[in-house]
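Both lines are retained for reference:
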Amino acid sequence: MPFPAYPERRSPRTPTESGFAGRLVGWAAQTLCTTIDIVRKPADQKGFAMLPRRWAVERTLAWLTAHRRLARDYEHHPATSEAMIRWAAIGLMTRRLARGGRPAVRQGRRPLAYQ
């Protein structure tokens, strides 16, 4: 029985890198009712170039990995890993909502206090 990941939408599209081009596409279509777009680099490309929409996935993974518990894979059970990812995402969204629309500002280096 398929589980619609987003029942209010018709068919959400998920950009994915070419490493996941195998059975994941069919599984996601049947089980999650979602469409996976495989983002491939052009055949004539040499070296690094930004791929469309892939930066959003990489940026999200970088934000989540900033949490200490997600920096390494310590968990034995997938449910625990999923809970930690949800916890990190909730913390990220809470900080954004509390900011009230102002852009994020990184803290600068604090000067050392020499006496």
